[in-house]
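Example A, followed by Example B.
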Amino acid sequence: MELSKKLLQLGFSPNQASVYKALIELGQCKAAAIIKKTNLHRNIVYEALEVLVEKHLAFKTSKGGVALFQLSDANTLVQDAKSQLTTAQEIAHEINSLRQKSTHEIKLYEGVGGLQSVRAKTLNELAQETDPQKKELLVLGADIKLAEQYYNMVFKKNDEERAKLHIPARLLFPQNITNTHTNQVDASPLTQVKLLPQTMHDPTAIDIWKDNISIILNDIEPFIVSIKNQKLADSFRSYFETLWNQDTAVITGLEALKKLRYQKLHALKKGDQFSVLWGNYESGTGKELFPFFKEFHKERVKRGICLQYLGFEKDRELLLQEMQYAGDPELQLSELKFSDNYNESPMQIEIYPDSVVLFYWAKNEKAVAVDIQRRDIRDAMKLYFDSLWEQKVFVLNGIKNTKKLFHRKLDEMKAGEEIQYMWANYGDETKKELVPFFHDLQQKRAKKRVSTKVLGFERNRAAHDKNNLGNYEQKLIHEDINSPLEIDIYPDSLSLVHWGKEDTIAVDIQNKKIRDAMKLYFDSLWNQDTQLITGRENVEKLVYQKIEELRKDDISYVYGGQYGEKNPDHFFTFWCEVNTKRNEKGARLHMIGFEHIRKELVREVQSGDSKMERIELRFLNQELLTPALTIIYPTSALLILWDYDEAMAIETTRESARQMLLKHFQSLWNIAKK
């Protein structure tokens, strides 16, 4: 008998036998040599090599970064056969120890006909069962060759008949079974499929139902041992449930991780959604993983599966390329968000309807995944994801990222929409670099036919005039105001930008209410229906004037700002006096302060009302601090920027603006702490 047939008798698949023979003839060699020798597809060769290495029939080494394969000692074949014999002896021993003379029955079946008979008998007995708890087929393990060779002839027809009889089934397959076969079975009605731990490679399949088990072996043809024994069936059922219900599995190896990701995808139905947090992979693996991710998303889109992806700004273009390739360029099935707010994580977290998977994408065996099938952990992780997803404020650091933000915001706009730039500034340190940048940006804006209004400073007139390229209006303020922030207002968001050589920072606020409030503020300035007051003494006089206008039980709402960097003691004393006068008038105060100056603010308000009977005070974290102090009176509002030498205030009596600021105050009040 020729060697190939003998190898098949030992349980080798035809492809594995061909690769094994090639290794005998070639000795130590690269996979490419085997591919050439066998004329098999490279994927088939690599899968066969993986199985031979796992069974210790071959081993892999590396030389100069290139993988080399070589046969193990031929005696390994004998050891493998002995291992199978030992397993069969252990099963036989367990069967004999559990056997009861009056309650057991053993039958043997051979060939395809025998396999069909056993499965038909199984369905017939389950169809007659009236107890729903017992009307279920469990399948533990699978012989890959048998499962794939007889799928269409036996198992597919059996699954179709089982579905007609409304008999559910749960199957535990070994990790090395092909994706194609897993998908075929998993697609059957009333069928659930999970994979066994990576270390389990049992070549037998065991059917468990009611008080029966069938041990299905594959030699030259199928051979089945069917045993009717309640105790034995319960023992195997308990073992099956233990494996089925394990809630955490560790998977290693890049190919195994790819298979796991497809398994998770195939478990989803059209319209289902999964979430990805911090998509990332080890440096140097992108060349291999990028094509995989593209094909994965192509199949995801084809299946109608939705994606929520929250990643890093640096990966934006890469993800958009993947979605383009996948057939979802308009992002109909893909929601993507990016930020530089987060510390980069080495793990990629994927949240599915009933599980969470932590992926560490790396080369070969360094890749690892943790599959957590616990609903409580999954739900907690989803809440964490949702809190990040719903975040409305994103911080970008550095000139490079801030420039990208300007371009991205413009890219998102449509012809006819408008941008408002308030306190348009270039920064003293960055003006030389930013003037040409903004000129190029305005050229791009003009081509898109997006309108803009610029509220800037007279000292920058020359640069602003050059940017007048169509659909462009500007108004320049003569006062020499050094605003620390540029405020850019878009249709659904706004950005606060501080320009600096080393400390440029942008805050992207994706909150429509705050944007609308700032838009009203811009409009009030643009339409010149506000009063601009400059100079510290004048601003302080205005505040005293507003206090004098208050009546008993009038409420003032105060939030934002601080005591200023210059002479904070002066402003503390000033506000103590203001609060004393307010209390004398019998007026009330609702104030939102900030945690880092809690003590000072409490002392300040108590100076006029020691028992705080007319005061309600709440606090926010420092990162929500705004440079402008907002005071909302019954018929007007003030926005104050404190600077000891050149303070400024804007007063508006426009009711719509006051109401919008009041709504903003209320939204902050609701999240502030007492």
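Example B, a separate protein, is given below in the same form.
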Amino acid sequence: MSGTRTNITQIRRTPLPNNPPAAGVLMDGELCVEQNTPVRLWVGVPTSLDPSGRKLVIDATAIAEAGVVGEAPADGASYGRMNTTWTRVLPLTGGSLTGNLTVGGDLVATGWINAGAVGSNSYAFMQAAAGATHWTGLELGRELNQYGTYLGFNAKGSSRWTLEVGTDDGDDEIGSNAGSNIYLRRYDDTGTELTAPALTITRATGKVDLTNTLTITASASNDALVLKQVGTASPLIEFNAAGTGTQAAGYLRARRNGVNRWTVQIGSTTAETGSNAGSDFTISGWSDTGTLISTPFKITRATGIVDFAVNPTVAGAVFPFLPIGGGTLTGLLTTVSTTVTGTFTVGQTASGNAVMVMNAPAGATRAIRMQSGGLLRWQLSFVTAESTGNAGADLLLTRYDDTGTNLGTVFTVTRSTGLLTLSGGLSYGNVLAAANNDLSKHIALFSTTYGINTTSGRMNFVIGGAAWFVTNAGADIGSVTSTGINAFAIGVTTPAAGTFTSVKTGSTAGPTWTTGTGAPAATQPVGSIYSRTDGTAGARLYVSAGAGTWTPVATV
């Protein structure tokens, strides 16, 4: 184009696409639209400004010298203007950031937020500025009893960990603070969940459940797992194993450089087979290479029996113990209640006293009881209350019937006097003394010289001196000595109720003196006398001539 035109602004366009106006074509101030992809806008200028007589005003693919931004790139991505440039942005429907995201205020997300990078690390920081007066945090929310919220941690495009709150597996809120619990789940290399949640925190109780080992790496000598009491609740560590198999219900393990040294099994690997068998408590020691040495301590759950593999020591010395199967105690045994199923012996094997002591408050029963089938048969005890003058605490032997009912006291020994009182008879059975003066089998009243015994066909009164018969008032009646009977008055008045029909004098084969009615006829030793109570003179007194012959004394 040529010629001079003034006060005219003309807009031209190129006839062909992607064909800018040629140099020297445009007049000063004349505009030309280049049919380009994207379009461009040119303006004619004096050759003093540009030798070609033109300047590009708008280029949709670049920033013009005048500071005007062209159209966004047509590559299917989303762009936004930042100053005079086009910048990749996220659409409202979501997308991926290739750099960091910093939020100075609240970030509210109604869908997914994924943080990830290929070939580098991924981070999410929550940091408050110095001196900030507000909390910095991450808040996830959900509508009541809808799908839960969680943070997901991915690698290579698939899940590795998720931290979930109220996931969609029946964890609804139904009142009493139930539901909306926290779960930490883990996933394999393909993104498939591995067994149960690694950690569960129940919202209503605050209870933390682990499904695997809890390892505490100590960075200082006093690092520890501390349980604290909240309110009136007791601190608790709970081990919970499923099934009745051979896995331990609970397990505590101490290691050195990753190698076992001690293990405590709370519910051992012994299988539960019924009747409370299995799941015992054990403590085991391990070698320097982590090989099991022994199980020095075990408590059997079914019986409560505590078993030491070797004798324990006290103050460096082997602690003596009494086996369950029985044995001998070398010291005192003090017990509140002990049941012995076998023989219980109190004694000394060398020297010293053997003592069994029963101690209880005054008035309480102290007893040795003998049972049959759990029912009383005999009891040796003292139960009477004590008072002054040594009264009370008397010793009793009591017998019981087949039902364990009291049949009465066999004997009582009065503590204050030593008196033995029998409630029934006293029998020596059918044992005979070795001699008529042997008191070892029957009753010895004083030493071996006074007493009563029984020999074949007779009872013997053994007298070391004289045996006196005394009234209950203390008056002497008569005595028996080795020479015979002395000082006894024989008759109807002394003793008052005495009636004698025959008196034998001398030796046991000596003459007798007999009384009766009628003439005598019995055979008596020679010299025996018979007094006839119904006779007359010459027939009152008779003397035996032996062989049943009697001679009356005349005039008597």
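On Example B: The longest strand covers residues 158-165.
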